[in-house]
Structures are given as structure tokens and as C-alpha cells.
């Protein structure tokens, strides 16, 4: 174990390094494999806002099922290449990230992490990528893409957050409106339902940019604030997919809901410019 700062320590578990944070406001766990936040628990109520599969593979051999996977430099298979071997959701969630900076502030613990290799097969840009995390009375995650090249670069991305819910069948999502593309219906366009409840596999790209959403189940409300996005992705695999995925238990779908702050329409970043996607959770 290595003490990194007053509130943060580095521990090694099952072949991956974890940063464990315990400060005045909250606790959090971040895997350096994937730059992957696994847990965020405000001390005000002791409730983990994030969900990790009981069957998650935690040895660095596969992206961790749960927490906040970093999808970059593409979302899904939106890499624009003919190469079908390119990994879903990009390649940085399968890399070991390094700690760039950690500091304590009077509002929490601030960290900056970077992937080991930003360039990769399928990405034509020249960029730097930084994950800036603030762990306090809310969890603030910023994914910062900076164009270091002489030509514009294009990317898509998502903060693919798995939120914990008591029971998906008694969960409602508020704050979304307008049209969405339904991946379970060949991306046909539908209107956002009101109330927004869940009773089957749900895989939707909402084309609106709400700044604030709320995930409500019973008396628990998780607030999600987004910036820099062009869409919000909502996903629950439901029973069949949950059963078919090796890193999900058959009943795993009941206690999770992905609400993802995403860029799913190609974002162009000019030379020396940067683009930031932000998700704040409380
Ligand atoms: O964000 C929703 C989604 O694109 C779903 O279609 C499903 O594939 C999910 O991501 C999980 O993807 P993964 O590659 O982590 O299994």
C-alpha cells in the first residue's frame, strides 16, 4: 500500500492497482486499469451511487463491467473504419492509466489520470487525453481531449456510467425529452416516454442535451449533471442479455441502469483546441 495524499492511497488487488480515497465528504475507488471509477459513496447517506457487476472481471484482462468505463476515441463501433476488429467503445478502457496529479483541496480530493497510450489503431488524430476527477460532496468527472496535431481530429466518446438502483422495475428517469434512437429497433426514432420506466431491454441514444437528470427509485434520487455532450445514452440489458454476458449475473440487470454522458455524433476538434465532456453525480 502506498499513501498518495492525505486522503488517497494506492493498493494492489488481483493484478490491478486501485486508488482508495477517504476524505471528509465521501469515499471512492478508482482502478488504474481503465482509469475506471468503481465506487463513489457520499458520507451524507452512505449510498454508493455506482454499480459494479458481482461477476466483473477484475484482473486487467477485460474492461470492468460497471462503474464508469471511459469510452474513447469512439463510442460503440462509431470509429468510421472498415476494420471490424476494432474494440467496442475504443481502447483506453483496456489500458493501465497513470496518475498525473493528486491534490487535496478545501472541497475534496482532485486527481488527474492519463491512459498509457493515446494513439491507437482506428484513431487518426494526434491528441492528449486527461481524466480529471474531483471527489467531494459530489463526484465530478471531466474527460479532456486536446488536439496536439496540425490537422483537425474527430472523435466520439462516453462516460458510460453504471448507476446503482434498488430495483430497475421500480426506477424512473426524469429530465429527458424529445427523440431517441432505439438500438433494439434498428435505431428507429421514438419519442421519450413520460413517465420513463423500465420493463425490457433498453438501449437508447437520446438526441437531447439536458444538463440535469434524476434517477429515482423509491425515496432515493441520484442527480446527474452533464456538459459538453450531444446525447445521453440509456441502457439496461434486461434478463436475456444479462444471462448471456459472462461478466453479468443472471439477475444483475435488476440493480443497474446506465445513464451515459456521450458524444455520439462525431466531434471535430481543431488544432490546439480541446473538448471536454463532464458528468457530475450527487
Ligand atoms: O452504451 C450502451 C451500449 O453501447 C450497449 O449497446 C451495450 O453494448 C453496452 O454499451 C455495453 O457495451 P460493452 O462493450 O461494455 O459490453
Automatic annotation (TrEMBL):
Transmembrane segments: none
Keywords, comma-separated and alphabetical: Isomerase
Enzyme's top EC category: isomerase
Signal peptide stretch: none
Repeat is among the record's keywords: no
Protein name: Putative glucose-6-phosphate 1-epimerase
Family listed: Belongs to the glucose-6-phosphate 1-epimerase family.
Species lineage: Bacteria, Pseudomonadati, Pseudomonadota, Gammaproteobacteria, Alteromonadales
Amino acid at each position: 500500500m502506498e499513501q498518495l495524499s492525505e486522503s488517497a492511497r494506492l493498493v494492489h488487488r488481483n493484478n490491478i492497482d486501485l486508488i482508495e480515497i477517504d476524505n471528509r465528504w465521501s469515499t471512492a475507488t478508482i482502478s488504474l486499469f481503465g482509469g475506471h471509477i468503481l465506487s463513489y459513496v457520499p458520507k451524507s447517506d452512505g449510498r454508493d451511487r455506482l454499480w459494479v457487476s458481482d461477476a466483473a472481471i477484475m484482473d486487467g484482462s477485460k474492461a470492468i463491467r460497471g462503474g464508469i468505463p471511459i469510452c474513447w476515441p469512439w463510442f460503440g463501433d462509431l470509429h468510421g473504419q472498415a476494420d471490424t476488429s476494432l474494440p467496442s467503445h475504443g481502447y483506453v478502457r483496456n489500458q493501465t492509466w497513470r496518475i498525473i496529479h493528486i491534490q487535496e483541496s478545501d472541497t475534496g480530493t482532485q486527481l488527474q489520470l492519463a491512459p498509457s497510450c493515446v494513439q491507437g489503431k482506428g484513431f487518426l488524430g494526434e491528441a492528449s487525453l486527461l481524466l480529471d476527477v474531483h471527489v467531494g460532496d459530489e463526484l465530478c468527472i471531466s474527460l479532456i481531449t486536446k488536439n496536439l496535431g496540425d490537422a483537425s481530429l474527430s472523435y466520439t466518446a462516453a462516460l458510460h456510467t453504471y448507476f446503482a438502483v434498488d430495483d430497475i422495475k421500480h426506477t424512473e428517469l426524469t429530465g429527458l425529452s424529445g427523440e431517441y434512437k432505439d438500438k433494439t429497433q434498428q435505431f428507429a426514432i421514438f419519442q421519450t416516454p413520460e413517465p420513463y420506466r423500465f420493463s425490457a431491454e433498453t438501449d437508447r441514444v437520446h438526441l437531447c442535451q439536458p444538463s440535469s437528470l434524476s434517477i429515482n427509485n423509491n425515496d432515493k434520487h441520484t442527480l446527474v449533471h452533464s456538459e459538453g455532450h450531444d446525447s445521453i445514452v440509456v441502457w439496461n440489458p434486461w434478463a436475456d442479455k444479462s444471462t448471456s454476458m459472462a461478466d453479468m449475473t443472471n439477475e444483475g440487470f435488476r440493480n443497474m441502469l446506465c445513464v451515459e454522458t456521450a458524444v455520439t455524433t462525431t466531434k471535430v476538434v481543431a488544432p490546439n483546441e480541446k473538448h471536454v465532456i463532464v458528468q457530475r453525480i450527487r
